Here is the input.
Amino acid sequence: MTTTHPMPSLSEGFRSSSHEDWLALVTKTLKGGDFRRLVSKTYDGLEIEPIYGQRLDAVMLAGAGAGAPWGITVRVDHPKPADAAALAASDLEGGADGLALVFAGSHTARGFGMTVDGVDALDANLSDVMLDLIQLRIEPSPAGHIDAALVAALIERRNHNPARLSVNFGLDPIGVMAVTGAMGASWVETGRLLTQAITSLKARDYQGPFITCDLRTFSEAGASEAQELAAGLAGGIAYARALESNGMPVADAFAALSWTIAVDADQFAGIAKLRALRRLWQRVEGASSVASRPISIHAETGWRMMTRRDPAVNMLRATLATFAAATGGADSIAILPHTLTLGLPDLLARRIARNTQLVLQEETNLWRVADPAAGSGTIEALTDQLCAKAWELFQEIEREGGLVECLTKGALQARIAAISKARCTDIANRRSPITGTSEFPSLAEVSANVLASAPDFSSSAQTLSSGSTALAFDDLVKHFANGGSRAGVLRPSPANVENIPLVIQRFSQPFERLRDAADAATTASGKRPRVFLANLATLAEFGARASWIANLLAAGGIDVISNDGFTSSSDASAAFAASGASVACICGSDATYDLLAEATAMALKSAGAAAVLLAGKPGANKAALDAAGIDQFVFAGQDVIAALQQLHTSLGIEPT
Here is the structure.
């Protein structure tokens, strides 16, 4: 007779701990201090606490493809058709299953993009691509309707059944307006043309989505997560209203929509942002009496977090962002290759971007769990707060007349600019460090390979995508299907609606400008600008500040001349004079400064120092140190960019 024994519980013998138990441990660790000092805040003012319990009342927020791998999307952005085709084929053979068509003129082209004048050229760019086996999306551009017609004409030429294809046509005139500062027709007329194009595509059996509410532009302008979500809601509502007012049933209008969202290396915020978008749109559907359906979300790793310096670190940022996007439930994801800031990525950079997703899919199996963050106290709390804040900001946009009117007045741009300014302040004082750029930079970094460098945003190729056409969308498709050219249908398109464009920027740019200026000075003189470290006393006393200042100066492209330390001001000044440097920085402990800083500063000035810095705050002795010749105090928490600019001036480095 077989005896069965119950499987022992893994939790058996362990006491269940409450939130209060954990809080008591935290308080003990803080030696009675208030745990609220560990609470951090987002740029929306949302509080993130140090401890959360499990949320047992969580509701799953799953995408349309829950339980299936997300789509791995890669860019087709090379200006030469043969090269674009070869790169696309390589990516698809290597595991990607989606292509993003980046036409010249799109702000996401980053100075490049496909220069396509007709269907023959588009066919050449996609010569080895089986369109019926992949997901296809068009990046929004100033002539999105023309790009959409070109793609439809190519599909017609290849005799594909549109009903069996996966095509996101990427129409987004509001997003284009936000970043370019203009809309070629009134919003009423734009809505009519948009409805006309979608109706034509639906009549050809395309399933959509046809519109993408592109939130990347708001992210790249420095918007907070709630601001992005509010713009996404307002944009979706604006499009739905425009389509409905032109005769499209509201359910069909909602089904025509999709969203494109940027995700950066803040993984908790990224996960919560995607989940919040789904929950918020469910609320809109409920208020509109439309049956709820999972919305289509395409995520892309954030342009604003990428750096030109030490670009290999971009791989790490992209991995975090992709994890967040996948965990948050993105239906498809595109990783910007780590060298995109330097130019057109080569095969290796594209392969790394592609394989990052493949590893996360096949080795972590993230896709096997629908909404894996559901029930996490941290994520659920952040999702709740984001929903509440985004809805509040969305209502503000609605009170101002909707997204188009809000952008026209410049109100949303001003609010985003205020958040961006706060971000820039935190980056400047290194409260928000950028690894490889503002923290731990390498002056000996090796340049990364790209296929073409220095994107030229003034290239004449960019004009190929501008302008409008008098042709109806059906006629536009026929024009291209019959071999017509883009140039044959374009006409001048003066702006009918104008607004202040969003200011697109990467967070690392101020530091990169400093590095560029220092590199230019290095090339001109044949040697890198250097600062002599007047280290005082022993390594134990000067080591921490000497290492810190060397790291900080490298962020500005400046090298240091170090030593084993000096016990007298005369020795320090003699070594400085022999070094050939023009600027010195005194490094030591506070106690050492009390004994030697004033005398050392005077000795360095007597030895010819154009400027003398001191690593640390001036403290109570500031007046005496100023009188002794200290020109600049460098310390943690100050505006490092301003400090480095001042040092550049002392070193004679011309700004770029």
About this structure: Confidence is low (pLDDT under 50) at residues 456-466. DSSP finds 22 helices and 19 strands in the chain.
